[in-house]
Design goal:
The complex is a heterodimer. By secondary structure, chain A is α+β, with helices and mostly antiparallel strands. Chain A folds into 2 domains: 43-118, no CATH class; 135-339, MetI-like (MetI-like fold), CATH 1.10.3720.10. Helix content of chain A is 58%, strand content 13%. Chain A is built from 13 helices and 5 strands. Chain A has a 3-stranded antiparallel β-sheet with strand order 1-2-3, with no helix packed on it. Chain A has a two-stranded antiparallel sheet with strand order 4-5. Chain A starts with a helix and ends with a helix. Chain B is an alpha+beta fold. In chain B, helix 3 packs parallel to helix 5 (188-196). Classes of the chains: A alpha+beta, B alpha+beta. Chains A and B meet through helix 12 of A and helix 6, helix 7, helix 11, helix 13 and strand 22 of B.
Amino acid sequence: MGIKTSILLAALAFSHLILLFAGFFAPCDPTTQDRELPYAPPTHLRFRDASGFHLRPFVYAWTSSSAGEQSDDYQENYREDRSREFPLQFCVRGASYKVLGVFKTDVHLFGTTEPGKLSLLGTDSYGRDEFSRLLFGGQISVAAGIAATAIALLVGSIFGLIAGYYGGWTDESLMGVTELFLSLPWLYFLLGVRAFLPLHLSTVRTFFLLTGVIGLIGWARPARLVRGLVLSLRHRNYVLSARGFGGSDFYIVRRHILPEIAGVLLTQASLLIPRYIAAEVTLSFFGLGVNEPAPTWGNMLSTLQQYSVLVSYGWLLAPAAALVVTSVLYSSLADAIHRG
Amino acid sequence: MKLIARLTLQVCLFTAACFAAAPAPEAAQPGEELARMPDVSGRYGGHLTIGQRSEPKTLNPVTVTDAVSREVIGRLMGDLIEINRSSQQTEPALAKSWKISADGRIFTLQLRKGTRFSDGNPFDADDVLFSFRVYMDEAVDSPQRDLLIIDGKPIVVTKLDQYSVRFALPRPYAAAERLFDGLAMLPKHLLEKPYREGHFAQAWSLNAQATEIAGLGPFRLKHYVPGQRIVVERNPYYWKVDHENQRLPYLDELVFLFVGTEDAQVMRFEAGETDIISRLSSENYNLLSREKSRAGSQLADMGPSLEYNFLLFNLNDLGGKKLEEVSGKQAWFRDLKFRQAISSAVDRDSIVRLVYGTRGAALWGNVGPGNKLWINQAIPHPSRSVETARQLLKSAGYSWNSAGQLVDSRGHSIEFSIITSSSNGQRMKMATLLQDDLSHLGMQVHVIPLEFRAMIDRVFQSFDYDAAIMGLGGGDADPNPEMNVWGATGTSHLWHLGETQPATDWERELDQLMQQQMVTLDYAKRKQLYDRAQQLIAENLPFIFLGSPNILAGANARVGNFHPAILDPYTLWNSDELYVRGPAIERAGIR
């Protein structure tokens, strides 16, 4: 494993750990609305005030417009209230959350004291902290991407193995099915499927549905890839000799074929994960994904469909940036694995 | 060579046709009874461009159903009596005067003499008779037909002489003169043939030639480019004149550009490609007002509109339907205290602030502050109180379990979903705010955005929903258009559709009040009846009223006489009076 691969792996592991422990790293609850602070710009972390430099950074609270002005123009009317400083604190108690969905706690890595508010990436239209939503949303989006990839690769390799290994009419019929799957207009199909499902699905069920759907749509391509590999592998001499010595199909696949396609599957995984994260984002963007108030990168970005929001509140683009970074990390990793 | 020459010639001819100047206004003829607008002044020439969200579907004023087509058709057509969008009162149009009999059943209208259609043909009582025959013909299936059939009987229209017409109503009908607004007078000489041949609905499609269409509006069709624009030019025979007796309209042309979406409308307006924009959302209005200094445009906040947005519970009779889940929840929804608790827990101030960016009004009844003539000022505006809501729920037998969830007396936890149209961002936002408000009462609410048609189907047909956020109103200030909502058998009696008998006592009283106000001619008495109706609605909360957006519009600095109104069409109702300011009048056709 090269240095580049190790660095990439470390970066990915680090970012995924942050997402995994989002509750600890996020200063706020992702669904709590602060109706006094819609579209508040990111809070500036400050080190210097009138009395000089401070080692411990602090923030000022936002106040909305001064009297007499139109108070609806949030962006231009938020001002820092310099009368009071709220120092940044570590390991503070705040909104309660569950670690890994099991242990309940209320300790956050950093935060500040009320009524000061630390919103590193500003707030959205309901005054919810964008940074906390980014982390919690990433949990769902990235997990959906990984789970969907696992499903796609599992189903894809099973069908690809069977088709490539047995050949003949099995191969023809299975590959016919993959062609059918590749040619379906999926977005319209999904819109239709959603219409038949019950109106309300819980976040958990939507999550499984989403990953299931993305994975089941995606199995066709890996299946064709695996099938092509297996097709050439099964005529290799060591496979033929293993068969000559009486090895069962299962033994041959496990001992001789799977190890050969493992590398390809790994590369596929690192290519598919970012693609399926983006697929979740697309589906949520069209309202087919997880519903409000639970955040995902997709439904967070869907507010940007409005032109006025897009041009006025730049910090709401944060999920798009996170998506780009994650994708670049994964595809560089795929590249590194491929080369190394 | 010959071919090139011919092509060049054709191109030249085509350009000439496109760039041909608009017709000059005709001089007044002796005996022509023109309508003089004493307060209107302006200058001739130029054109204005309006961005439309979509392409019109038809130019037929009788069968039109969509707002975009109506925006264009309204410029081409004239009515007998008009509602002045600014004063909200009726005023004479093609009928210069009218008399109402003492019992309120007979209307006698005097038509303007010497009026001509935009193709120069005269207009008289025969055209009026023809128009009403078409509107009331079942085979034509006009959406306005229902208004003209009262108690199952049609209005009887009789010609008294060439310039007077009598309308006999089957029974007294309050503010019946308002009915005439929106009923375009049709040219008998052009439309009788398609009508007799039974294909009236196909007449005046977008493919029609400009010469086939004539109306009594300020403009007439010039040309239509599919997918791009419709251009209308001055009607040289228009029957209104300004304070100097100059024939209106001032503009040579109006251009309707098909731009696609609301965002596209805003961007085109920002870029100066369009001159007038209406029905702006507060976000876009704020966006434009930030850039106002640079662009120098005039923006108008006309105050609350007549539209009311509300939360609606499914109180339909689900007897014949297999909807056990919904019918199980209806026990809560039918409970008045439950609805009152929800109304008390709703943070309407936040809705006005976050949904409308303060450009809107909170609502506690079906008539908002925009409708100054009819609002019942006595309806209380209790402020938000989660405490009151909890008390109400407690007194109705609800309690809270250890997890803080609200449960009913049978121990079921209160959980329901709110459907709303996914294309309406404002209502989606209201739903999300409501979800949060109601979570403070321990209710689990799910917000379900649906495609508009899917939502309408659930509310009107399948009844497969718990609650919905919708909006109504916005047409006319008068209570009569509201009949179909508050009358027990109305087609928009949304919370309980298809009733043959009012289900509750208050609904019976409401139905009676609405029927009564319809036949009461005196405004003060009608107001009393409608006040009581509003009170009943506010007390019994068939809808939980949320808010009403302001009418926001904008125009380029060079647009003169820009007076938007809170009634539809918000900005183009006085298109005959709009003009282009400044010395440099562009030649028509240059764009």
